[in-house]
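look at this fold:
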Amino acid sequence: MKDLARYVACTLLLVAPCALGAEEWFRGGFTGKELLAACKAATDESVHDFERGICRGFIEGFVAGRHVGDTWHAFHHREEKLDEVYGRLCIPREIKKVALAIVFVQYLEKNTEKLNWNAGTLLEAALKQAFPCPAKRP
């Protein structure tokens, strides 16, 4: 009977997140407000590493994910040039990661009415505004 109880408990732990709405989890849970404090800390060397790591990790993960998406798109749509992929980010290779945190903080501070929005959506808007892609060549 104990084995059955353990099996049921383990099954519920695995299935429960699906019942709660995997779609919401997949979108990410951070808001701009939550990351604003962490990203302010990312530029302050006197702050503990944990707060800086949250922001830098979020930004690095976001940018890496976008790069994978752009690469996948370019591979599966070979007739398009990579610089014509809709929604592509054009972050210069030489940019330092702390500079991305500064860009994000500045964007959030200028758009306080959006602080409850999804942090990924806000980061994308901040990066597109700070690093616009070059105009398409005719």
User: Anything to note?
Assistant: The first helix runs from residue 2 to 19.
